[in-house]
Design a protein that fits this description.
The protein is α+β, with helices and mostly antiparallel strands and 226 residues long. The protein contains six helices and nine strands, in the order αββααβαβββββαβα. Keywords: Signal.
């Protein structure tokens, strides 16, 4: 049903003259976000912010196409082809203030799962090894004391060992998939809420990529994560 809804929104409407009229970009991007994060998540964001704007969002299929191309291009001993192209925006949501955003992006990464550590820097960093194929990290910076109207900022990542069909066999361990959720919009400190949103989109993307090693991506983080 999600894919059907996206197809309807992306389809061209016909004007009275019979000429194709492009769908409104905001509607297209919102539909991509509802597909990627779920409708209830978008409703949750609307409750947390007075206004939302939907930015470039490629959705599941657009993200799959780009990521699978990058991972199939990987070869041992060759410079990573995706370092200059950056991440793919699966869902981009802006808020009322400058710099307010809630974004989910994906990219291929050169960080092997066993080499990933809890992030450092300002804030509280943490790491959770879910299973042999999935690792989660989080970095939360609380609102700054004495700074009026400052809100906290969170960055949440998921790493997945995903062997993409047609890719070099070494890609599984040396070039995993990475998803990142950045939140400077909601002031929500719960890693559990953010991980649940991120894992929802990751499960959909892993299914779309057809990972041959069948990684088990949970719907929620482990119970210990709050």
């Amino acid at each position: 049903m999600r894919r059907a809804a996206i197809i309807v929104v992306l389809a061209f409407a016909l004007s009275a003259c019979g000429k194709p009229v492009p769908a409104e970009p905001t509607a297209v991007f919102r539909a991509a976000c509802e597909e990627s994060l779920s409708g209830p998540t978008i409703t949750w964001l609307e409750r947390r912010a007075s206004t939302l704007s939907f930015r470039l969002s490629r959705g599941i299929d657009g993200t799959r196409d780009r990521i699978s191309k990058d991972l199939r291009a990987w070869k041992p001993g060759v410079a990573f082809p995706w370092t200059d192209t950056g991440s793919v925006s699966m869902c981009g949501v802006g808020g009322p203030g400058h710099g307010d955003h809630y974004t989910v992006e994906y990219r291929a990464t050169a960080e092997a799962l066993d080499m990933i550590h809890a992030p450092g820097g300002l804030g509280r960093g943490s790491l959770v090894r879910v299973n042999d194929d999935v690792v989660l990290t989080a970095l939360w910076r609380p609102p700054m004391e004495g700074v009026a109207d400052d809100i906290g900022a969170g960055r949440y990542r998921v790493y997945v060992a995903c062997q993409v069909p047609g890719a070099n066999s070494g890609q599984l361990e040396r070039a995993p998939l990475m998803g990142e959720l950045d939140d400077t919009l909601t002031n929500e400190s719960s890693a559990r809420i953010h991980y649940t949103h991120l894992l929802h989109s990751t499960r959909l993307l892993v299914e779309a990529l057809g990972c041959t090693n069948k990684p088990v991506v949970p719907a929620e983080p482990p119970p210990a994560v709050k």
